[in-house]
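Sat 14:20. Reprocessing the chain from the morning session after the first attempt stalled halfway. Input below, unchanged.
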Amino acid sequence: MEINYYLTLLRRWIWLLALGVLLGILVGYAVSRYQTPLYQSTTKVLIMQAPEDRVLDLFAPDDQQLAQTFIELLVTRPVIQGTSERLGYPVSTSQVRVERVTGAEVVQVMVEASDPQRAAEIANTLVKVFIDQNEALQSGRFAASEESMQAQIQQVEKQITDLQNQLTQLSTESFDSQILDVAKTISDLQTEIRTLQQEIVELEYPGEMVIAQDQFGKEIQMTPTPSLENLRELTVKKDRLTELISLRGMYQTIYVNLSLAEGNTGNRSSANAEQIQAAVGLYQQIYSNLLSNYEAIRLARLKSTPNIVQVEEALPSTAPIRPRPLTNMILGGILGLVIAGAIAFVVDYQDDTFRTPEEISEVLKLPILGYIAEMQRSRIKGDNGHQVFVISNPRSPVAEAFRSLRTNLEFAELDKPLKILLVTSPGVSEGKTTVAVNLALMIAQTGKRVALVDADLRRPQIHKVLDIPNRLGLSDILRKNANLQAVAQLLDHSRLSVITSGNLPPNPVEVLSSTRMSQFLSDLKTQFDIVIMDAPPFALADASVLSSRVDGVLLVIRLKKTPATIALSMMEQLGRAGARIVGVAINRISKKDSDYLYRGLRKYRMYSQEKINDDGGVKGSTQKENQK
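Finished this time. Tokens:
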């Protein structure tokens, strides 16, 4: 049942789904047509860890963390601004997208622009600016140390030159100047040593002590762990402190030698020359150590700087990446299908009408006695006057449907005789009059005496369908005591007697609920085999009054027209009135649903046509008329 329901739902809304897909495709094409083309250029950058990081593997970040770090740095404001300044036109962060190549230490930089040449320029310049800024940032960490070492080297060179000049000419003033320079150097070294010692302490104990609890609940003090950058800086500063302490010792030795040489300047002895020569040797040793330390600092800077290399240069693209008309049209079609499906689902969910016969059986708990397709509304004139559909089309599926309804009603009489049958519907325009007229004619064809009564005293329709006069009718019988035989109109060549509504009374409910109405129904039972009454829709009180006085009620329901809530309300009212509901006749089934409901009738149509051909009683146009 679920599959049939969804197939029915799909068949009902296929036009909306197709329209949604078509509109989605058109919108996708329009968006692609008026969207500015964008080109993309890609360059690849190799990022390798610094040699120092590879040695300190315990603290060094892995390749993924390093690549993610540089991905974030590549789109920072200084890099974007530097690229804009170097190119001479603005570059936006939204134009740049950086991704890591899976399984490699390679990052690819993708730049989008409306000009393919400009996209390639931005990508290449961006990488160059980033490399330059990264080298400047890394070299800045060692700039102060390198400048200090260069100043000390120049100072030692000057002092060596001065001492060598003093070997040939010794004077008190020159010794005093040298001693003062050495003393000042020792003082500067002492100040730098104290500063380094303080910085080392701050790096070893970054922040305040943290109070925590051990597994026994006892409070303990914990020192925060230094970061990787602090550990690197701590190592450099400790090495520098060791060098400064050693250097200070050498200068102190020089200070002593120069002081001794100053006391003996008057003798110009060879001992003084030896002391000066010893001081020169110490200066030369200091000079050698400074050069060595300077090279060590430069080497440390190179080791701690990650290696960034552009391995693939960006080239101008030949085709735009956006818009993609085919992709946009496919996505638009899918989106249109989803929206149309959602609309169809919401509309179907809000629709309270009966959609399938299964819904009627499930909701009303009543049997389906007949499936009647939508028939021609125009009457067909023949030799016997105006005729309804089952008379003019006796071998049609509609006529067979009424025969099936007639048979099912005969089975309903097994439990209780069905002398008077009331035909009504929950609402208007559901075809109850059409069903009543065609059913009455079909029953009359079996030889039974049938009375067709138009009990709709508000909007009677039977006299219009049969094209008979309505001067006298039911209202005249009930209000003026007219004779039944005088009112009833016998149709030509049939056993069907028709009692029209007559003149419409101002109070239909009072007339139908009168004692005279009960007597009239009793008279009908005695004079006819079965009575078919066409009642007003159940929205009016007339149908409730009549339902309690008849032997059975046949409900006429139209698919996609009759609301389930109104039908359930009708069922409750019929139950309170004590009416007997024999079943449901589904009327005016659309052509697209006829194939679903009339599979069994096709065999009948084929059989009837074959029978006609065998008998030879139908020729030409008559056979074509039967095939319609």
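The chain has 24 helices and 16 strands.
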